[in-house]
Each structure stands twice: as structure tokens, then as C-alpha cells.
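REQUEST ID: PR-0412
SUBMITTED BY: lab tech R.K.
PRIORITY: routine
TASK: structure prediction, single protein chain
INPUT:
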Amino acid sequence: MDVGIDRLGFYTPKKYIDIVELAEARDVDPNKFTIGIGQSKQAVPDVYQDAVTMAAEAAIRFWMMIIVMILVWLSSVLRAVLTNQKLLQLS
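STATUS: complete
OUTPUT:
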């Protein structure tokens, strides 16, 4: 029996700050981010977003992915059933 994380929902805010501007505002060498970890921008939450709203966004994306997977499976089952019925009618 395999146990582990099989699916993951993920959300990142849509607003960004230039990492060089952020580093300079914090008196940090920008190369620490641009060269050190290869980051060019930093996502920041909007004024109406907090940890709960971002978690809800991730959960919505997760469940939408699951729903799509179920619909794809159901369409393949329906296709198989309809194909079998057509074969039975031809017999």
C-alpha cells in the first residue's frame, strides 16, 4: 500500500514587488536574492487577502482538479457503455 501526498492545491497572489526594490528598501544586497536564489520578484497578498483566503483559493483549485478528473473518468465510462450497447445492437 502506497501512502503519501498524491495531489496538491497551490495558490500564489497575483501582485508582485520587484525584488531589487524590496532588497534596497530593507538595506539588503539585491544579489542575495537575484543571484543567490534566482528570484526577480516577490508575490505579495492584496489588501483583502490573508492566510485563510489564500488557503481557500488553494482548496478551490484542488477540488476543481479532482472534479475534472472525475468528469474525465465518467466520460470514459459512459463512452465504454455506449460502445458496448452499440456492439450489442449489431449482434
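NOTES: The chain has a mean pLDDT of 87.
REVIEWED BY: pending
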